[in-house]
Design a protein that fits this description.
The chain is mostly helical. It is built from 14 helices and six strands. The strands form three sheets. Strands 1-2 form a two-stranded antiparallel sheet. The protein has a two-stranded antiparallel sheet with strand order 3-4. Strands 5-6 form a two-stranded antiparallel sheet. Helix 9 crosses helix 11. The chain is globular, with a radius of gyration of 20 Å. The termini are close together. The mean pLDDT is about 95.
Length: about 350
């Protein structure tokens, strides 16, 4: 391990939340802790208030709370199936822990037309509607929890790859969308049975490995190289779905995709995008990704803390389209530093960064 990454790991093992400590050992250092130490960290994780609230909201069929795709008036921010299962997966709760196991069983047994999915009994076919469908969300949750070896999501992994591949087969999304007039306004919608990538496709690929061949990784890198083009503002379009009315996609990715944003002349890294592309193995092929990795490495101090400017609005909290916070709160500077440093360490680790 490089000196910088070792300093980061040491800082986190000294100061971070039990989930982060556990993941540093297992995911970065690849060290097998004694069972007694693992059980102690798990007990501390399970005793956290958010985890307790997720356990308390679980229904008889294993479903978490009264929501699926995020909160609603009857489901809190974590007391819904999507955010709850993703959070449990990110916190590295044991796979066999009853709350996670039963939630995954619900994903395996509850029909996609069940009212639990909050689509009024409708199934939005992910193979018909580009960048859409409740099953893409379901499969991303299964992948994030590390259950893709138990619940078969291979068709959706294939769809994710095909969706990114489609970017290379057409000039732009303009070629596979059409304009519908709705209420006097023009809306661009995808043609039926087209493919185009979305947030959840990337989530699925970032958290699985069965798809990773040299050819697939290079194809994904070529797709992102095109999606990151900024010289064609007229091509920076996406689309919605037409299901008899306009239905928004699950985070359709548009050309002009960036790994950072500028705010008050400050370059702020999107750590989720950067981490996920590193997890996909794209660092050797994308100069833009290597630039972000170098920025992060350069911002690590002698104490192991990463002080890089990041998009905190994306990192803080936890939700459907953002949030990676594993510390219980950011009421102290150290807790904030632990979340930022942990994601920075994962980026350097999966990005293959060396001193």
């Amino acid at each position: 391990m490089t000196d910088i990454k070792r300093r980061m790991a040491d800082f986190l093992l000294e100061n971070a939340n039990p989930s982060i400590k556990y993941r540093v050992f297992s995911e970065v250092l690849h060290e097998e802790l004694p069972k007694s130490e693992k059980d102690k960290l798990q007990a501390e994780i399970m005793d956290e208030p958010i985890i307790k609230s997720i356990v308390a909201c679980q229904k008889e069929n294993g479903w978490l709370g009264n929501g699926f795709h995020g909160p609603n008036k009857n489901a809190g921010n974590f007391e819904n199936q999507e955010v709850g299962t993703k959070y449990l997966g990110e916190k590295l709760v044991y796979r066999g822990t009853p709350v996670l196991r039963r939630a995954m069983e619900a994903y395996a047994t509850v029909p996609l037309t069940d009212l639990c999915y909050r689509t009024k009994g409708k199934y939005y076919d992910e193979f018909r509607y580009a960048a859409n469908g409740q099953n893409n969300i379901r499969c991303a949750c299964i992948a994030r929890a590390g259950y893709d070896d138990i619940i078969d999501i291979k068709p959706q992994i294939g769809l994710a790859l095909d969706s990114f591949r489609r970017v290379l087969e057409v000039d732009s999304a303009l070629d596979i969308t059409r304009v519908k007039r709705v209420g006097g306004r023009e809306k661009r919608v995808f043609n039926d049975y087209e493919k185009w990538p979305c947030y959840y496709h990337l989530d699925i690929l970032a958290h699985t490995s069965s798809w990773k061949t040299d050819e697939n990784v290079k194809t994904l890198a070529e797709s992102f190289s095109k999606l990151m083009r900024t010289d064609r503002p007229d091509k920076q379009v996406g689309g919605d779905s037409w299901v008899g009315y306009v239905l928004g996609t699950t985070g359709c990715i548009r050309e002009g995709y960036q790994l950072f944003h500028e705010n008050d002349s400050v370059h702020r890294t999107y750590v989720d995008r950067t981490e996920w592309l590193c997890r996909c193995g794209l660092a050797p092929y994308l100069p833009q990704l290597r630039d972000e990795i170098e920025r992060i490495a350069a911002a690590v101090g002698e104490n192991g803390v990463c002080s890089a400017d990041v998009a905190e609005e994306q990192l803080k909290g936890f939700s459907t389209y953002g949030g990676q916070q594993l510390e219980v709160d950011w009421k102290t500077p150290t807790r904030r530093a632990c979340d930022i440093t942990f994601r920075a360490l994962l980026i350097l680790h999966y990005g293959g960064w060396e001193d």
